[in-house]
Amino acid sequence: MSLYEVDVQRTGRRRTLRRWFLLHPGADFAWAAAAVLLWLGIALLARQPLMLEAADPGARRTLFQTLATLAGATAGLTLTSVSMLINVLGKKAPPGQQELPLEKLSAAHRRQIGEVFLFAIPGLGLLVVAALVTVVLEGDALTGLWIPEAMVFVLTFASILALLRVAWALRRVLAISTA
User: Fold this and answer.
1) Does a structural domain hold residue 7?
2) Cα 12 from chain centroid (whole Å)
3) Distance CA 71, CA 88 (A)
4) 11 CB-contact burial (10 Å; exposed 0-12 / middle 13-18 / buried 19+)
5) For this UniProt entry, which segments traverse the membrane (predicted)?
6) Is the pLDDT of residue 121 over 60?
7) Which residue among 32, 147, 153, 166 is least packed, with the fewest CB closer than 10 Å?
8) Is residue 6 part of a domain?
9) Among 166, 161, 163, 164, which residue's Cα sits nearest to residue 29?
10) What is the distance between the terminal CA atoms of the chain, rounded to a whole angstrom?
11) Within a domain: 5
12) What is the domain extent for residue 19?
């Protein structure tokens, strides 16, 4: 087992599933699409509006504006974290002193940590754009448009999964740096 817990030697269902989740960030969109398709299927079977079509226009607008704001702020925070992470992972101990804990990470592990952060940013950016486009397309109409709403929810769910991975990476970097 490595410090980053990617090279797992032990077998077990929990470790295998967690490792798969950590190493396959692209699957976030598949999981998110499956969740939205399930939502749409249940709505069709129950003969209910597909997404938020029947919700109050003001409530829909507020929801999508809030999603855009949260996604933009989180993308900015994640981008700032990347620059801080570069400084932390690139820091070397002065000559003659003991090696810093983060210096023990291999280049592959450093790349994996960076990819976790960099994968989250485009999804958050797309969420900002999709939420704002949905606000503009729906305007003040009494009924919403389910296709753009579904896209926003797919991006929202995928971004949540990516942010869970970012939180895990931050936790591991903190644990390693304080070891």
Assistant:
1) no
2) 25
3) 25
4) exposed
5) 21-46, 66-89, 116-137, 143-164
6) yes
7) 147
8) no
9) 161
10) 16
11) no
12) 13-177
